[in-house]
Structures are given as C-alpha cells and as structure tokens.
Amino acid sequence: HDKLQEAAYSMMKPEERCLHHNRYGLALGFVAEREKDDKMLLTAVGQINQGSQVVIDDEQAIVVSNLNLDAGMKAMIMSDFFLAHSFFNHGISYLRRGHWTEHYDLSLQLFNLAAK
Q: Which end of the chain is more exposed for a tag (fewer CB within 10 A), N or C?
C-alpha cells in the first residue's frame, strides 16, 4: 500500500504535489481550528507550507499567515523553537505588499516572534 502511494506521488508533477499539500493542509487546518486540536494544526500548517509554491489569492494568504502564527505559538508552548521560527517565517512569506498598513497586528506579531 505504501509503495503504491509512493509510486503515485512520484508520478505527479511538482506543481500538482504542491497543490495537493496546500488543499489538504487548508482543509485539515480548518478542522484543527474548529476542534482545537494543536497536533492536527501543526500537521495542517506543515502541509500548507510544503505546498507553498502554489499561488493563492490575497485573502487566503492572510488566512495562511494567521494559521502559521497560531502554529508557531503552539510550537513555542511545546518548546520547539526551531519549528516555531519556521512557522513564523512561512507566515511572513505569505504576507502581501502593503501588509504593514492592511494587516499591521498580524505583521507585527509574525516579525516580532520570528526575531526572538
């Protein structure tokens, strides 16, 4: 079964892989937020970030930045500072031009926490 999955995955184009990681992560992220499941949130955001080459719209980018902020804060609570830093940096990478004026609080939190 695992070999079959690996074979199917390896046959996918890199863009398709990213798209699948992104979609899976977003769906899982919304469930994790609703269920307040920290472990699921970390997995979901990891999947989203693995598919980070997928071009997403501005609204979705802010959602993903917020998910990365939440995941990074959960990782800090677990004392996994390397993982937290990775989430904060990914969150920053999703911010769009003008984020300091349009999403000041989110931007400030991500940059401050990434700098720690």
A: N
